[in-house]
Fold this protein.
Amino acid sequence: MSEPDTITSLETKTRPWWLRIPLTLQIAIALLLAVSLGIALGAGNPSPENATFITNLAIPAELVLKALRALATPLILVAVLHTFMTTTIPGTAGRRLAVLLLTNTTVAILIGLLVANVLHPGSWGTLAAPTGAEQVTGQSVDPWGLFKDAVPDAILKPLVDNNVIQLIVIALSFGIVLRALKSEQIAQGKTAYQPIEDVIAILFEAVIRILNWVIALVPLAVFGIVAKTVAERGFAPFQSLAAFIVAVLVALVLQACYYLTRVKLGSWVNPIKFLMGGSDAFITAFSTSSSTVTMPITFEVLQTKLGLRESSASLGALVGANFNNDGTALYEAMSALYISQVIGQHLDLGQQLIVVLTSIFASVGAAGIPNAGLVTMTLVFTSVGLPTQYIALLVTVDWFLDRCRTAINVMGDMTVSALLDGKKPRTLDEA
Ligand code: ASP
């Protein structure tokens, strides 16, 4: 990921001054202005002559969502291809790594679904249906059908249908093949793979840059949707969102406890030392909302503060920052359940199973950059027929929850490194 990040940081320096205000501050200002406008427009009692204006306030959020939906599939595709072509994973450790990643992510999603089913944050208040909400299409689910559907009819079809499972099948197939071709060519002293690798790196950077444009519009979207919600419904809907925030935080804390237990049982690292030594990485993750930007710090603390072997540190930190996003998976599953509760569309066990599966894939495909989870969440919603317009309301709290789940994403990478390091500390010879 090094080239794209360098280009992005160069680009940052040439931005106009208003775009250099931190996004969180922009969103905070947008929230304040939106609440004032919402109150001025009636706070739950709007006058009929303002109706069209109030309805149109949702337009920026609708456009942002459409753009996020459109970017989700290319982002996953190039992110997976890029990781496969550029990261080195030794054979046996690779298999262990895959098992660890899969179990941790599945546990994260199950914790998320459990907390959402128990606390039921969607029933703590009401949320208005955003204008133009799609018709809810409850689907009953046949797991075999899901299996049969995993292979698309045409290679580009998942990109068009926004089908995350099919997309990952395509991305993984091409990723594995391109990777194998690259090693064969390197062994034969050939370099024909290089142009493809460069093209993928450039495309990856291009998608991220376009995503950055869309994210630059998020404060405007938040302003519009919050002003509209306050104007039409007063503050009642935010009670429900507050419940959602509490539920997500509870689930993330439980996930952190799960990591500490695994570290205690499966590695030589002391969990307290793990927490203290990792604090630099957690704080950086929280303040940047990006596990990719945090990656060098994660790698550093794993080696210097926790004393892990370089091989385990690099596998967990480097591969993890790209593929392992447990906090994101947990969040996406909880969001789907929360919105289903809000709109009173019960998701049965089969549908929750689909949420588990698509959240796993969506989190694998979510790049370690701010708000990536919001982008791939559209795919989870689509898979169980939930209206994606509701994601506009989640945008208003995403700036905060993104930070929290990024810290958990990084903690997940560190846990994997500790487990790969095993039960015996590094000896002096290995140091
Ligand atoms: N911001 C997260 C990360 O960098 C991804 C997400 O949006 O969930 O890990």
The mean pLDDT is 82. The domain at 22-421 is CATH 1.10.3860 (Proton glutamate symport protein). Residues 289-291, 325, 328, 366, 368-373, 402, 405-406, 409 surround aspartic acid (CB under 6 Å).
